């Protein structure tokens, strides 16, 4: 995603990604319509292949550091997976990693692509965007939070 200033600094071609909430904010490179294409795997197959992990059924908000790709995202609905079976609900889970690192950890991509309206918040205000992805199996990611 490259806006006018980013193009001048890096030499990359502009992608039209300079956005802002209103005239009160300076434009910056921002998300537009971002999604991961569907793959060939079923969610049941993904869960069945897990020895121990979490199934993050519903994601919440989070943040990304543009320079490093470091992110943290809240999981609104999560379940413990043991020996390929969903065993218990979890709460207060947060997924933490970097974009480049987590992309290398994806081993399965579901066929169930779903798109939704979302918001991208940044120093240039909040702007609407389209987001989405199919189910993903991520083999290694830091999970923070607690469970009572």
What is the H-and-E element order?
A: HEEEHEEEEHEEEEE
In total, the number of domains comes to 2
> How does the overall form come out from the CA principal axes?
elongated
The helix content, as a percent range, equals: 10-25%
Strand content: over 45%
Radius of gyration: 17 Å
Give the count of helical stretches. 3
Account of the 3D structure:
The protein has 148 residues and is mainly beta. Helix content is 13%, strand content 49%. The protein folds into 2 domains: 1-30, no CATH class; 35-144, no CATH class. It is built from 3 helices and 12 strands. Strands 4, 5, 6, 7 and 12 form a 5-stranded antiparallel sheet that branches. A 3-stranded mixed sheet has the order 3-10-9, with no helix packed on it. The chain has a two-stranded antiparallel ribbon with strand order 1-2. The model has no long low-confidence stretch (mean pLDDT 87).
Produce the secondary structure layout:
Elements: H1 4-10, E1 18-19, E2 28-29, E3 33-35, H2 43-48, E4 52-64, E5 70-82, E6 85-90, E7 93-98, H3 99-104, E8 106-109, E9 114-122, E10 125-133, E11 136-138, E12 142-144
Parallel strand pairs: 3-10
Antiparallel strand pairs: 1-2, 4-5, 5-6, 5-7, 7-12, 8-11, 9-10
Question: Which features characterize this protein?
Answer:
mainly beta, single chain, five-stranded antiparallel beta sheet, 13% helix, 3 helices, 148 residues
